[in-house]
Design goal:
Largest sheet: 9 strands, mixed
Radius of gyration: 22 Å
Structural class: alpha/beta
Number of helices: 7
Order of helices and strands: EEEHEHEHHEHEEEEHEH
Length: 260
Protein backbone atom coordinates (compact mmCIF):
# COMPACT_ATOMS: atom_id res chain seq x y z
CA UNK A 1 0.00 0.00 0.00
CA UNK A 2 1.20 3.51 -0.79
CA UNK A 3 0.35 6.53 1.35
CA UNK A 4 0.93 10.10 0.17
CA UNK A 5 1.12 13.07 2.53
CA UNK A 6 0.58 16.63 1.30
CA UNK A 7 2.86 18.92 3.26
CA UNK A 8 3.27 22.70 3.31
CA UNK A 9 6.06 24.82 4.77
CA UNK A 10 4.80 27.97 6.49
CA UNK A 11 6.36 30.78 8.55
CA UNK A 12 7.31 29.71 12.07
CA UNK A 13 4.58 30.44 14.59
CA UNK A 14 6.97 32.70 16.55
CA UNK A 15 8.30 34.57 13.50
CA UNK A 16 7.83 38.32 13.27
CA UNK A 17 5.67 38.96 10.22
CA UNK A 18 6.01 42.20 8.27
CA UNK A 19 3.94 43.05 5.21
CA UNK A 20 5.71 43.90 1.96
CA UNK A 21 5.53 47.52 0.84
CA UNK A 22 3.24 46.63 -2.07
CA UNK A 23 0.91 44.61 0.18
CA UNK A 24 1.31 41.50 -1.95
CA UNK A 25 2.48 39.21 0.87
CA UNK A 26 4.69 39.10 3.94
CA UNK A 27 8.44 39.69 3.98
CA UNK A 28 9.91 36.18 3.86
CA UNK A 29 13.58 37.13 4.10
CA UNK A 30 15.32 36.23 7.36
CA UNK A 31 12.39 34.46 9.01
CA UNK A 32 12.19 30.84 10.08
CA UNK A 33 9.86 28.34 8.45
CA UNK A 34 8.38 25.08 9.69
CA UNK A 35 5.96 22.34 8.66
CA UNK A 36 2.36 23.51 8.76
CA UNK A 37 1.04 22.40 12.17
CA UNK A 38 -2.00 20.59 10.73
CA UNK A 39 0.28 18.70 8.34
CA UNK A 40 2.37 17.31 11.19
CA UNK A 41 -0.71 15.39 12.35
CA UNK A 42 -1.19 14.12 8.79
CA UNK A 43 2.41 12.89 8.68
CA UNK A 44 1.98 11.16 12.04
CA UNK A 45 -1.22 9.43 10.92
CA UNK A 46 0.54 8.18 7.79
CA UNK A 47 3.47 6.89 9.84
CA UNK A 48 1.12 5.05 12.20
CA UNK A 49 -0.37 3.34 9.18
CA UNK A 50 3.14 2.45 8.04
CA UNK A 51 3.88 0.97 11.49
CA UNK A 52 0.75 -1.20 11.28
CA UNK A 53 0.76 -2.27 7.65
CA UNK A 54 4.25 -1.61 6.28
CA UNK A 55 2.87 0.95 3.83
CA UNK A 56 5.24 3.17 1.88
CA UNK A 57 4.93 6.82 2.93
CA UNK A 58 5.69 9.52 0.35
CA UNK A 59 5.67 13.18 1.43
CA UNK A 60 4.99 15.87 -1.18
CA UNK A 61 5.51 19.61 -1.01
CA UNK A 62 5.52 22.61 -3.34
CA UNK A 63 7.83 25.58 -2.92
CA UNK A 64 11.34 27.03 -3.27
CA UNK A 65 14.63 25.44 -2.19
CA UNK A 66 13.96 26.00 1.53
CA UNK A 67 11.08 23.48 1.38
CA UNK A 68 13.71 20.71 1.34
CA UNK A 69 14.17 21.34 5.07
CA UNK A 70 10.52 20.50 5.80
CA UNK A 71 10.72 17.39 3.64
CA UNK A 72 13.88 16.24 5.39
CA UNK A 73 12.13 16.69 8.74
CA UNK A 74 9.29 14.42 7.59
CA UNK A 75 11.82 11.89 6.30
CA UNK A 76 13.55 12.03 9.67
CA UNK A 77 10.23 11.22 11.35
CA UNK A 78 10.00 8.05 9.26
CA UNK A 79 8.66 8.83 5.78
CA UNK A 80 10.29 6.75 3.04
CA UNK A 81 10.82 9.31 0.29
CA UNK A 82 9.86 12.81 -0.77
CA UNK A 83 8.76 14.70 -3.87
CA UNK A 84 9.57 18.41 -4.11
CA UNK A 85 7.82 20.45 -6.81
CA UNK A 86 10.21 23.37 -7.27
CA UNK A 87 9.00 25.60 -10.10
CA UNK A 88 8.33 29.38 -10.06
CA UNK A 89 4.93 28.90 -11.71
CA UNK A 90 4.00 26.23 -9.17
CA UNK A 91 4.97 28.48 -6.26
CA UNK A 92 2.66 31.18 -7.65
CA UNK A 93 -0.31 28.85 -8.15
CA UNK A 94 -3.62 29.50 -6.41
CA UNK A 95 -5.57 26.87 -4.47
CA UNK A 96 -6.96 25.18 -7.57
CA UNK A 97 -3.57 25.18 -9.26
CA UNK A 98 -1.98 23.69 -6.17
CA UNK A 99 -4.69 21.01 -6.06
CA UNK A 100 -3.99 20.15 -9.71
CA UNK A 101 -0.30 19.66 -8.92
CA UNK A 102 -0.98 17.42 -5.92
CA UNK A 103 -3.61 15.45 -7.85
CA UNK A 104 -1.15 14.87 -10.72
CA UNK A 105 1.42 13.48 -8.30
CA UNK A 106 -1.14 11.30 -6.51
CA UNK A 107 -2.25 9.88 -9.85
CA UNK A 108 1.33 9.21 -10.96
CA UNK A 109 2.11 7.56 -7.62
CA UNK A 110 -1.13 5.52 -7.59
CA UNK A 111 -1.61 6.50 -3.95
CA UNK A 112 -4.07 4.36 -2.01
CA UNK A 113 -4.59 6.96 0.71
CA UNK A 114 -3.79 10.68 0.60
CA UNK A 115 -3.32 12.47 3.90
CA UNK A 116 -3.38 16.25 4.29
CA UNK A 117 -3.71 18.73 7.10
CA UNK A 118 -7.19 20.20 7.57
CA UNK A 119 -5.92 23.64 6.49
CA UNK A 120 -2.78 25.77 6.27
CA UNK A 121 -1.70 28.02 9.13
CA UNK A 122 -1.01 30.92 6.79
CA UNK A 123 -3.98 30.73 4.41
CA UNK A 124 -6.69 29.04 6.53
CA UNK A 125 -8.60 28.15 3.36
CA UNK A 126 -9.16 24.42 3.96
CA UNK A 127 -10.10 24.15 0.26
CA UNK A 128 -7.19 22.27 -1.31
CA UNK A 129 -7.77 18.74 0.11
CA UNK A 130 -11.40 18.53 -1.17
CA UNK A 131 -10.26 19.93 -4.52
CA UNK A 132 -7.61 17.22 -4.84
CA UNK A 133 -10.20 14.54 -4.09
CA UNK A 134 -12.62 16.02 -6.64
CA UNK A 135 -9.95 16.16 -9.34
CA UNK A 136 -9.11 12.52 -8.69
CA UNK A 137 -12.80 11.53 -8.40
CA UNK A 138 -12.23 9.82 -5.04
CA UNK A 139 -14.10 10.11 -1.72
CA UNK A 140 -12.75 12.34 1.02
CA UNK A 141 -13.32 13.34 4.63
CA UNK A 142 -12.16 16.55 6.30
CA UNK A 143 -11.68 17.50 9.93
CA UNK A 144 -10.84 13.89 10.80
CA UNK A 145 -9.97 13.21 14.43
CA UNK A 146 -9.63 9.42 14.27
CA UNK A 147 -9.59 6.75 11.61
CA UNK A 148 -9.32 3.03 11.15
CA UNK A 149 -8.40 1.02 8.07
CA UNK A 150 -10.12 -2.34 7.60
CA UNK A 151 -9.08 -3.97 4.36
CA UNK A 152 -10.15 -1.72 1.50
CA UNK A 153 -12.44 0.36 3.72
CA UNK A 154 -11.53 3.45 5.75
CA UNK A 155 -13.70 4.47 8.69
CA UNK A 156 -13.14 8.10 9.71
CA UNK A 157 -14.52 10.10 12.63
CA UNK A 158 -14.76 13.75 11.65
CA UNK A 159 -15.51 16.91 13.59
CA UNK A 160 -18.53 19.00 12.63
CA UNK A 161 -19.61 22.45 13.76
CA UNK A 162 -20.71 22.77 17.37
CA UNK A 163 -18.52 19.86 18.50
CA UNK A 164 -20.66 17.19 16.84
CA UNK A 165 -18.96 14.12 15.38
CA UNK A 166 -19.74 12.16 12.24
CA UNK A 167 -18.48 8.70 11.29
CA UNK A 168 -18.10 7.98 7.59
CA UNK A 169 -16.90 4.90 5.69
CA UNK A 170 -15.05 5.18 2.40
CA UNK A 171 -13.39 2.78 -0.02
CA UNK A 172 -9.77 3.21 -1.05
CA UNK A 173 -8.38 5.20 -2.73
CA UNK A 174 -9.52 8.17 -0.66
CA UNK A 175 -8.32 11.41 0.89
CA UNK A 176 -8.24 12.18 4.60
CA UNK A 177 -7.74 15.75 5.89
CA UNK A 178 -6.59 15.51 9.51
CA UNK A 179 -7.78 17.90 12.20
CA UNK A 180 -5.40 19.50 14.70
CA UNK A 181 -4.88 17.40 17.83
CA UNK A 182 -5.90 14.12 16.19
CA UNK A 183 -2.81 12.35 17.54
CA UNK A 184 0.47 12.78 19.37
CA UNK A 185 3.07 13.80 16.80
CA UNK A 186 6.44 12.08 17.11
CA UNK A 187 9.78 13.85 16.91
CA UNK A 188 12.46 13.03 14.41
CA UNK A 189 15.07 10.94 16.22
CA UNK A 190 18.81 11.46 15.78
CA UNK A 191 18.96 8.13 13.96
CA UNK A 192 16.02 9.18 11.78
CA UNK A 193 17.67 12.50 10.94
CA UNK A 194 20.86 10.73 9.89
CA UNK A 195 18.91 8.24 7.77
CA UNK A 196 16.91 11.07 6.19
CA UNK A 197 20.06 12.38 4.54
CA UNK A 198 20.21 9.19 2.45
CA UNK A 199 16.53 9.05 1.54
CA UNK A 200 15.57 10.25 -1.96
CA UNK A 201 14.02 13.67 -2.61
CA UNK A 202 12.71 13.75 -6.17
CA UNK A 203 12.63 17.33 -7.51
CA UNK A 204 10.01 17.92 -10.20
CA UNK A 205 8.90 20.81 -12.41
CA UNK A 206 5.45 21.45 -13.85
CA UNK A 207 6.71 20.12 -17.17
CA UNK A 208 7.56 16.81 -15.48
CA UNK A 209 3.94 16.60 -14.32
CA UNK A 210 2.46 17.57 -17.69
CA UNK A 211 1.18 20.86 -16.26
CA UNK A 212 3.49 23.40 -17.87
CA UNK A 213 1.54 26.47 -18.95
CA UNK A 214 -1.66 25.34 -17.25
CA UNK A 215 -0.91 26.21 -13.61
CA UNK A 216 0.00 29.53 -12.03
CA UNK A 217 0.14 33.04 -13.45
CA UNK A 218 -2.70 33.81 -15.86
CA UNK A 219 -4.26 30.42 -15.10
CA UNK A 220 -5.03 31.35 -11.50
CA UNK A 221 -8.73 31.69 -10.74
CA UNK A 222 -8.15 33.68 -7.55
CA UNK A 223 -5.57 36.22 -6.42
CA UNK A 224 -4.65 38.07 -3.23
CA UNK A 225 -5.08 41.75 -4.07
CA UNK A 226 -3.66 43.13 -0.86
CA UNK A 227 -2.85 42.21 2.71
CA UNK A 228 -2.44 44.79 5.46
CA UNK A 229 -2.39 45.26 9.19
CA UNK A 230 -5.81 46.29 10.55
CA UNK A 231 -6.03 49.94 11.56
CA UNK A 232 -6.19 50.69 15.24
CA UNK A 233 -9.06 52.81 16.47
CA UNK A 234 -8.28 56.26 17.84
CA UNK A 235 -10.56 55.91 20.83
CA UNK A 236 -13.05 53.69 22.60
CA UNK A 237 -16.36 54.63 24.15
CA UNK A 238 -17.15 53.06 27.50
CA UNK A 239 -20.83 52.45 28.17
CA UNK A 240 -21.93 52.85 31.76
CA UNK A 241 -25.00 52.00 33.76
CA UNK A 242 -26.93 48.88 34.68
CA UNK A 243 -26.89 45.83 32.44
CA UNK A 244 -30.24 46.79 30.92
CA UNK A 245 -29.06 50.38 30.33
CA UNK A 246 -25.80 49.25 28.70
CA UNK A 247 -27.69 46.85 26.41
CA UNK A 248 -30.08 49.63 25.38
CA UNK A 249 -27.17 52.00 24.67
CA UNK A 250 -25.35 49.32 22.68
CA UNK A 251 -28.40 48.55 20.54
CA UNK A 252 -28.81 52.29 19.84
CA UNK A 253 -25.15 52.60 18.80
CA UNK A 254 -25.42 49.59 16.49
CA UNK A 255 -28.51 51.05 14.84
CA UNK A 256 -26.77 54.40 14.38
CA UNK A 257 -23.93 52.64 12.60
CA UNK A 258 -26.40 50.87 10.34
CA UNK A 259 -25.34 47.44 11.53
CA UNK A 260 -28.78 46.39 12.69
Amino acid sequence: MKVMVCLKQVPHQDARLDVKADGSWIQEDNIKFEINSYDTYAVEEALRMKDKTGAEVVVVSIGPDRVTQALRTALGMGADRAIHVNDPAAIGADALGTAKILAAIAKAESADIIFAGFMADDGNGASIPPMVAELLDIPSATGVLAMNADGDTIKAERELEGGALEVVEMPKPCLIAIQSGANQVRYASLKGIMQAKKKPVDVKSLADLGLAGSVGGANNKTAVKKIYMPKKGDSAEILKGSTAEIVAQLVTKIKELGLL
